[in-house]
Amino acid sequence: MKAKLAKSKRNNQKKNKLIKQGVIKKAKPRKDVKAAPVPQKPNLPVVEDESDEGEDLLDMVDDDDMDFLKTAITNRSYNIYNKVKFNVSEEPKLKRRKKSQDDETLENDFEQQLEEQESDTELKELLPFKTKTGLVRNRVLKKIQAEEIEEPDQAEESKNQETAENEDGDNIENGLETSELNFTGPVSVVQLMAKRDEVINKVKLHVGTLSAGLLESPEEKIINLRTLIAMMDEETAHTYVTVRKILIVSILEVFKDILPSYEIKNVSTDGVRLKKDTLKLKKYEESLLLYYKKFLQKLEKCAFVLFKKKGDTRRRSEEEITIGTLAIQALCDLLVTHPYFNFSQNIAQAVVPFMNNRSKDIREIVKNAVKTIFKEDKKEEITLKILRVINHYSKNHSNMHTEMLEVLLVLNLNEVNLEKDKEQNIKEKKLKAHKARILQLSKKEKKRKKKLKEVEKELLETKAEESQQVRQKNLLEVTKLIFNIYFRILKTNTSNSKILGVCLEGLAKFAHCINIEFYMDIVNVLNKLLNEDWLGYREQLFCIHTVFSILSGQGEAINLDPIRFYNNLYKDLLTLNAASKNSKDTPVLINTLCEALIKRRKKITNKRTIGFLKRLAQLSMQLTHEGSLGCLGLIKHVMQLNRSADVLLDLDSSTGEGKYQAEIEDPEYCNAASSALYELIHLARHYHPIVSKFARHIASGVPSSGDGSLPGEYGKSSPEELCVEFDMSEMAFNPPVPLVKNGPKKTSKLAFADSSFETECRQVLRSKKRKFFWIDDA
């Protein structure tokens, strides 16, 4: 008997089929019409099984069909519904549709097997299916646990609630769950290592999947950052160090790629209706800033483990030190890569104090990063922020490492002129006051003037002159902060010669920016420092270099006789040699001598100049080839500028005022003109070919062309450039030594004038008793 379908159900099926095919559209329910409440029968169970249109299935089934289904279930015609029971009266069985005997037997056997299976079995059999070759049976599948099964409606709801990180990989719990080792019996080291490698490989795959998805579409999968940052809190004993390293490096590379080069500003949009794309971009930027802030906080927490406070006697493990060092490296990389992004000032405040850390490696990491920022900063904004942090740190800490001040030497302040800026400000103030006295503007004229200023400002912005003015202003602030730091160190008069040496080196480099009003005070302070016993040779050179730098520039107008600085420099000139500890101070010495002898050549006497040249020739005999080239290059330049120094090439000593006395500490009275540059004879046979050329060039009278002249690339080089160009610190000889060619060796045959003597010599060589005779010519 074939069950008849109700007319309404048949119509619904046809309508649903047409909706799926796209022939008709699904009608929207009317909002204004309220459906009448459906009366429910009291004390009757309601079956909540709805069709596609929301109608009750039981209402659509005829009474005859319902009686047939109940009778079939009760009489066990459908074994799969055995657990469903209905209390109905016995009625005569209805005839069913005939089925093939094979299909009925097959279904009954399979249903019986399902009933016999145990509830705890791990495998279950699948239904057979027909193929061209016949039936395929005995298919099994891993049994799904009951708690893993979801209803279709629940599955749709959970799918809608899944976030982007579940699309790219498993959740954090699933990714790191396997890190817990649950072994019941004894475990070997090999098993532990294999399990550990397995867990780490899973984490790598999980992190790589999330990172790759984030880089492909940052705006859509920004939520992946939340998963990656949350994984940094993993505390599993055997994997947390490696996992945290992987996460720090991965998140670092992701942020270096997706962060913009500008600062994201928080603009209030209350009451403003935004476009869909604008709102999406705003939410993305807010999420990016939130996760970036969380990542920086975690890095700061890891890095501050290395910062030991007073009274803290805890010993940090190697794992904590390793993670802390990696965190500092990550912070420095973010600051170098995106110096103008948000939180750059916060990173600077966290990183700069580590230049005073006990570990040299950490100090070098931060120092190199800060140097890179100073070199690449075009706006001087982040440079000013870092200098403010250094200035504040130097106020509260008297003992600092040299790295804290060495980074300042990278700055370029050649464009800064404090005096010019001061004079310009005074002129502008006077001009404004003069205009205010003469012109009495009305309100309309004042408004017009204000509008003109705004227009001029916009024009400057279009011409990029506004940014140039901002940069000049920042440079002035940078210069003031630098000298504030240096002067504070000089006032404290610390006995730390290393930090004082770096301070003096910075003063010597930036002396042209110092205000004239402070020149005399600085010179007096440096003069006192030269009399200190604890001051090293390098620090003395920087003191003298600073004084000569001041006097060579704007300080020429100062009425000051630097004779004591000349005498000090001349006295300690020969303390420098190739075998001493201060052999690395040769470039500093060459720079100081260039300031004293070349830039101030018109301010010193010929006797003093000749005395310095004679001692420089003596010094070049005890230095390495780069130091010798620096000294000889300095002698060459002085002799080209001052022809009175040619007296040192005259070998006749009868024309002088007396004998040369090298032990006198004042070059004015050592009578160097009575001597000559005999050292050039030895330097002409120097092992370095360029030193030999320079010695012959000076001995020939420093000719510009002809015999004894130098090649163009060496003749135009300054002493400082020669000292740097031929430096052997990188173990590279300049010019390179030619390779020895492999060829037949040339043997020279001895020729004897007396044949009898030749025979006697050969007999002696062939004899068993060989005797060697040494002939002393003396």
From TrEMBL:
Its main location: nucleus. InterPro entries: ARM-type_fold, CCAAT-binding_factor, Noc3_N, Nucleolar_cplx-assoc_3. The keyword Coiled coil applies. Residues 541-695 form the CCAAT-binding factor domain. Residues 204-295 form the Nucleolar complex-associated protein 3 N-terminal domain. The keyword Coiled coil applies. Residues 438-472 form a coiled coil. Residues 1-54, 92-121, 147-178 are annotated as: Disordered. Residues 103-120 have a biased composition (Acidic residues). Residues 1-31 have a biased composition (Basic residues). This is NOC3-like protein. It comes from Phyllotreta striolata.
